[in-house]
Fold Endoplasmic reticulum-Golgi intermediate compartment protein.
Amino acid sequence: MSLQFLDVFGKSSGGRRQVRTTSGGLVTILAAILIVWLLVLEVQSYFSVGLEPTLVVDSARDERMDIIVDISFPHVPCTILNVDAMDIAGEVQADVDGQLLMADLGPDGNFADKAILDRQKEIRENAIAARLANPDYKGPCYGAAPDEENCLSCLDVQRAYAAKGWQFHDGSGFDQCKEEGYPEALEANKQNGCRVSGRVSVSKVAGVLHFAPGEPVIGSGRHSHDLSAYNLPSMPFNFDHTIHQLSFGEGGETQLDDPLRGFHGATDQKQFAFHYFAKVVATEFHFLNNTVMSTNQYSVTRHGRPIVGGPDEDHPNSYHASGGIPGVRVDYEISPMKVINTERRMETFSELLMDVCAIIGAVITTAALVDRSVYAMDRVLREKKNR
């Protein structure tokens, strides 16, 4: 089959009404390919969807919000790591690590030897069980609580000392801790780390999520921690960390609702604090299948500094004030606005039909003009050649 047979752009020549040419067949093929390609793109555009954002006032301020965390601290054992949550409404959640999964990490960054951890847990539980079995046992609080109070476990002594603002150190001065093997466990685990994962329920107001060593000391308008065990010279601790997830509410799968995913806060200094400032915006996604997903997007700025003060290692002309608590602090602020993203098709069916007609008409018209121009030029050249 010759290209002349494919020519759909008829040309009149002399007495003959229609002339088909090879160039016309070639133009027809190119026009057909172009039409098919453009139609495919147009159909893809019709089936594609986009998000139309709308900004409204967030009226659901009395709801609660989950902060979802998954952070590894390779140089702070779970034994002394503590997590607190506070907000400007006055709600204080001390020791929220009880709501979280605290998994010990070995020196290699993998999960620690479970057999060793189980043995330490068994010693601790057996010691507490023996005291509970003795109805006459009354554990001393070593002056940190009234005589009538009973400090049954090493943890009770820790909390009593924290409430007084006293230093606990490694627990070797307390019978409960020695019986539970706390000093030995602290020494054995000093090269270990901790991976914290789970969720913390907070009010939708500005607040703080704080990862720090030692029991919290909260009272008289202040918030601090017992750093005596952390600051022991024999303990090689620091708050180098990796954020696997930090999101406010469900989601956490994009750079908008989890911009810190995979971030590594690096330090080898023991007295170093990391500070993250997050601006949280409530976000809803309304999909074409009538489902709704609520999440929170946030932007974040970060800062790290040595708490001993002095010049910055990276910027010698910058000086830091001394003071603070080593750890990781996340300050979050809740925006009064909400973003509603509504999923919509990029164009309607009537727009698709109009675009299809426009594509076919435009390509055929242009191809016809090209074919006639080529044919006219060919005739002129032939006439000149035959003279």
In short: The domain at 55-108+194-343 is CATH 2.60.470 (Acid-sensing ion channels like fold). The CA atoms of residues 136 and 150 lie 11 Å apart. The mean pLDDT is 85.
